[in-house]
Amino acid sequence: MTQLKNLTSTDRRVLLSALIVAAGFAVSKFTGVLDDFIVARVFGAGRELDAYYAAFKLPDLLFTLIAGGAMAAAFIPVFGGYLASGDRAGAWKLASSTINLAFLVTLAAASVAAWVAPWLVRQFLAPGFESDQQLLTASLMRLVLVQRLSFR
Q1: Is 3 contained in some domain?
Q2: Is residue 91 in some structural domain?
Q3: C-alpha torsion angle, residues 109, 114, 118, 122 (rounded to 10)
């Protein structure tokens, strides 16, 4: 507790920012579990639901690594530093550049993943599925990849 009292105002802001992001991720995971429960309850267990869940694996990983990792590990501390030093223009220029770069990297990765979706499903995501279920999974994965780009 004494260590918290010794923090500078900049360190406190960075710590608060990190805690807010962590809370956001926790709420996101909780609502994800709730979403899974509702979907399973409405549609029941079956081949289509298995394909649906398999289709989300890669897009979720891409988003978590590119957007979540970049934001939590690199962006927030630097952004907080700009704001703490009074450089609002620099902070928002950094925010714009970071968001644009994250979007472009996600777009490139999603495009490649969509292009090779059937192979990815066959080799890694759902090798035990029958061929029609693999095609459904690949189609759903392409939709999820587009959705990730449109809302992030």
Answers
A1: no
A2: yes
A3: 30
Amino acid (one-letter) located at 135 = L
What Å distances lie between residue 42 and 39, 62, 98, CA to CA? 5, 27, 39
- The 10s digit of each residue's pLDDT in 115-146 is 999 999 999 999 999 999 999 999 999 999 99
Q: Is residue 129 part of a domain?
A: yes
- For the four alpha carbons of 20, 15, 9 and 85, in that order, the dihedral sign comes to negative
Total domain count, the chain: 1
Number of Cβ atoms within 10 Å of the Cβ of 66: 21
Q: How far is Cα of residue 30 from the mean position of the Cα atoms in its chain?
A: 14
Taking alpha carbons only, the member of 144, 29, 12, 23 closest to residue 72 is 23
pLDDT tens, residue by residue, 42-90: 878 789 889 988 999 999 888 888 877 767 778 888 888 898 899 999 9
Containing structural domain, residue 48: 9-151
pTM of this prediction?
0.71
- Please report whether residue 121 resides in a domain: yes
- Name the helix (H) or strand (E) containing 152: none
**Secondary structure letter of residue 44 according to DSSP:** -
